[in-house]
């Protein structure tokens, strides 16, 4: 099911060059199943035509508080009733000031004042000096205190030629914020530490020993934890994936580096989810120079030593986080996963078959705990991750 399926949003546009991003945002929200009513201020129509937004949305566009197309002539009331949220993107400095002071002199501002329990999200867009001005900062602080969700702004090049804070977030970033907004928040207030991807152990400067892990499962779980309201810290081995939106990433290469990064963060976290495919051994006699073939073409004599067991060490940490392990098996999944859970000393272990999941976009999770096992249906990795996060939240004990 699409993330925004059968949910209606009111998208408000105020005056600013970032209106062009709103057209793209509308289409991407529609791709995820949303229905969207568009309301534009008079200033917004100088940057984007109502014809364009109507063609894209497939619905009438509203600009006038006296619009007679609404049966009761009360568009400022009717449009928000039953809407999942009102999103103002772009939100100009002027419109933010109106919201902060309860002004209602056009359809969009009146609609925001009359929205009742309908949530309000705003995506600021303005010059950096306007964003940094004390008046704007006071207004934004007031809106936050009033329960308005502020999305961004971003930083970077601006249409005026200056660089700094004030850019409206990009459509894909806003989409991720909206999808996260509609998800339940069972981990609100929690901090979740996640490892993902492979590790790579040096043989020489150009060769490594690694695991066949794309990182997709761990990154999906990081995204799902963020959507669930958690502060997420991702420790990642080498992958080709971008960091999930809103999630800081600590990049490592070796198991020793991953161990150090995890141990520096673990004690301050509520949950540790060890998804990474960590190499079991490292090469003791790794070469500082590229190893050349010999005349006899003999392979090098590599000597191995075990890497630290990150999950087991965190699980034994006094006062440490609640731990979740992963087992990617190729056979005897149930026996091997349950044995690994007991060996590591973790309350929950997630098993799956490597050949069924590795590198793909779907997976089948089997959850193992003291009560036995629960097999989830085959799902996309993000849907499986959301189901796992919900399962973790239900099992998570209160920390003293």
CATH topology annotation of the largest domain: Rossmann fold
Number of domains: 2
Shape descriptor reads: elongated
User: Roughly what percent helix?
Assistant: 25-40%
* Cα-atom radius of gyration: 25 Å
Class per helix and strand makeup:
alpha/beta
What's the rounded overall pLDDT mean? 91
The percentage of residues in β strands lies in 15-25%
Order of strands in the sheet with the most strands? 13-12-9-14-17-18-20-21
- Extended strand count: 22
CATH superfamily of the largest domain: CoaB-like
Label the CATH architecture of the largest domain: 3-Layer(aba) Sandwich
Residue stretches low in confidence (pLDDT < 50, at least 5 long) are none
Supply the number of helical segments.
14
Largest sheet: 8 strands, mixed
Termini gap: 38 Å
Could you name the CATH class of the largest domain?
Alpha Beta
Q: What does the secondary structure layout of this molecule look like, with pairings?
A:
Blueprint: E1 8-13, H1 19-31, E2 35-40, H2 50-57, E3 61-62, H3 75-78, E4 85-91, H4 93-101, H5 107-113, E5 120-124, H6 128-132, H7 134-145, E6 149-150, E7 154-157, E8 163-167, H8 171-182, E9 191-196, E10 200-204, E11 207-210, H9 216-227, E12 231-236, E13 249-251, H10 255-265, E14 271-274, E15 281-283, E16 304-306, H11 310-315, E17 322-329, H12 333-344, E18 348-353, H13 354-357, E19 362-363, E20 366-369, E21 372-375, E22 379-380, H14 381-395
Parallel strand pairs: 1-2, 1-4, 2-3, 4-5, 5-6, 9-12, 9-14, 12-13, 14-17, 17-18
Antiparallel strand pairs: 7-8, 10-11, 15-16, 18-20, 19-22, 20-21
């Amino acid at each position: 099911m699409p993330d925004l399926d059968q949910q209606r949003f009111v998208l408000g546009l105020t005056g600013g060059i970032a209106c062009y991003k709103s057209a793209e945002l509308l289409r991407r929200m529609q791709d995820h199943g949303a229905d969207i009513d568009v309301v534009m201020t008079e200033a917004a129509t100088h940057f984007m035509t109502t014809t364009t937004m109507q063609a894209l949305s497939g619905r009438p566009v509203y600009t006038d508080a006296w619009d007679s197309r609404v049966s009761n002539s009360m568009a400022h009331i009717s449009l928000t009733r039953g809407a999942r949220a009102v999103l103002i993107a772009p939100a100009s400095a002027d419109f933010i000031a109106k919201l902060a002071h309860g002004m209602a002199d056009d359809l969009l501002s009146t609609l925001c004042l009359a929205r009742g329990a309908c949530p309000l999200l705003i995506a600021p867009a303005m010059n950096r000096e306007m964003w940094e001005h004390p008046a704007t900062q006071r207004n934004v602080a007031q809106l936050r205190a009033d329960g308005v969700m502020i999305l961004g702004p971003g930083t970077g090049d601006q249409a005026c030629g200056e660089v700094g804070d004030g850019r409206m977030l990009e459509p894909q970033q806003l989409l991720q914020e909206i999808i996260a907004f509609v998800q339940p928040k069972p981990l609100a207030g929690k901090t979740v530490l996640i490892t993902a991807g492979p590790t790579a152990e040096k043989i020489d400067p150009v060769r490594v020993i690694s695991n066949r892990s794309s990182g997709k499962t761990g990154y999906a779980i990081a995204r799902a934890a963020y959507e669930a309201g958690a502060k997420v810290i991702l420790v990642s081995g080498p992958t080709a994936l971008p960091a999930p939106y809103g999630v800081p990433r600590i990049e490592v290469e070796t198991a020793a580096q991953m161990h150090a990064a995890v141990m520096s963060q673990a004690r301050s976290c509520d949950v540790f989810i060890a998804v990474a495919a960590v190499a079991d051994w490292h090469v003791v006699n790794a070469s500082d120079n590229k190893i050349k073939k010999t005349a006899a073409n003999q392979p090098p004599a590599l000597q191995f030593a075990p890497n630290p067991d990150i999950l087991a060490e965190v699980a034994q940490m006094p006062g440490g986080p609640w731990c979740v392990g992963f087992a990617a098996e190729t056979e005897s999944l149930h026996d091997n996963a349950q044995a690994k859970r007991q060996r590591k000393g973790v309350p929950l272990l997630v098993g799956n078959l490597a050949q069924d999941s590795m590198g793909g976009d779907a997976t089948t999770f089997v959850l193992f705990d003291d009560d036995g096992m629960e097999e989830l249906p085959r799902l996309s990795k993000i849907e499986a991750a959301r189901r796992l996060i919900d399962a973790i939240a239900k099992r998570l004990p209160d920390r003293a």
